[in-house]
Amino acid sequence: MTKLTLGTHPFLLGFEQLERLVERTAKSGNDGYPPYNIEQTSETSYRITLALAGFAESDLSITVEDQSLVIRGKQADDSEGRVFLHRGIAARQFQRSFVLAEGVEVGEAVMENGLLHVDLRRHVPESVVQEIKIRRS
Asked: Do 35 and 6 reside in the same domain of the chain?
């Protein structure tokens, strides 16, 4: 028995890119830090919220690279001259990636009370019916 994938199924034409996106997402290597939520805010919009205690806006970078939203964070080392008896607040760098579907655009990003909110909007294409004429050879 042959295993069918999206790219090889006879009724799904042109879905090779979707299969590559799924593979890339599986290999993204996100380790669970920082924690995040994804919520649907309307029929065509979403919000990603990352918990970033201790990070300032200047510590963060948000880019869209090859259909992926990439959020990076790196805090400046301010521990020089300080003695910690316990250090439980993470002060490490991170990179969190989210693969974006075609037609999804990144809106604004807002930092509020240690939470970074990134708004996304999906543009729904109009339904188009195209009639194909049959010509005689």
From this structure: no
